[in-house]
Amino acid sequence: MNVVQLLAATSMIAAALSIIMTAAWLVQQRSGNSGWVDVIWTIGTGAVGALAALAPITGSLFARQLLVAGLAMLWAFRLGSHIAVRTRGSGDDPRYRHMAETWGSDAPRQMFWLLQKQAIASVPLALAIMLAGHNPRPQLDLPDLLGGLILVIAIAGEKLADDQLRKFKAEPGNRNAVCDVGLWRWSRHPNYFFEWLGWCAYPLMAINLSGENPFGWLSLIAPACMYWLLVHVSGIPPLEAHMLRSRGEAFRAYQRRTRAFFPVPTTPQN
After folding, report:
1. What is the DSSP letter of 74?
2. C-alpha span between 195 and 227 (Å, rounded)
3. SS3 sequence, 110-174?
4. Any idea of the CA torsion for 58, 200, 151, 57, to the nearest 10 degrees?
5. Residue 186 CB neighbour total at 10 angstroms
6. Residue pair 16/55 in contact by the 8 Å Cβ criterion
7. What is the pTM of this model?
8. Residue 16: Cβ-neighbour burial (10 angstroms; 0-12, 13-18, 19+)
9. 268 falls in which pLDDT band (50, 70, 90)?
10. Where are the domains of the chain?
């Protein structure tokens, strides 16, 4: 891959993601349920990344392209279907709802530009998938296998965390309680941790220490960007603000005894 190909691919990825998030905005405005935004973003980002990984660029190993594209779509359909089921069974996403309430009558315009910013922030994610698929190493080797293993573990871990939270919420006595069982005893956001972990797999598959794929180092932006978004922007801050409003002191106590992001095993408190 040369500089011209990289710039052309990045431009097409950015344009595709912008169109996808425009569609997400239209669905959100028409349905009144912003939960569909995350469904469309997840499947759209995975699809754009997978198609970019499969693009016919000279020197790419087709087996690696298939592996990377397949893993990206596995992530996208697992997470996208989970969010879709949750969205159909509940109301508006509290994070977006609070933003809309704050924006008032200007909410439609503000939401549109927020989602366009999300499209821009997603470019490094799809780009990392593409760079992993087009690493010019002549055969599948240990970094590919380790990257695939990390991604599978991340998808399974995120599913386990989602399932534990869903089962906890399904118990009638837990309606206004704070989930602190299973992985949620070790981290206040284990699903976010595993989401971030999955994006750490692509640099492992994209970076070529021989120097044949210098652009592979750009894939490191993906996990850095995802960490920044989850921990400092659109993940933990608005979600915990909502939890503090709805759960009050129970959630404050949970914050005091449990780490926010990285899971650390703790002894259950009596």
Report:
1. H
2. 9
3. HHHHHHHHHHHHHHHHHHHHHHHHCCCCCCCCHHHHHHHHHHHHHHHHHHHHHHHHHHHHHCHHH
4. -10
5. 17
6. no
7. 0.92
8. buried
9. low
10. 3-257
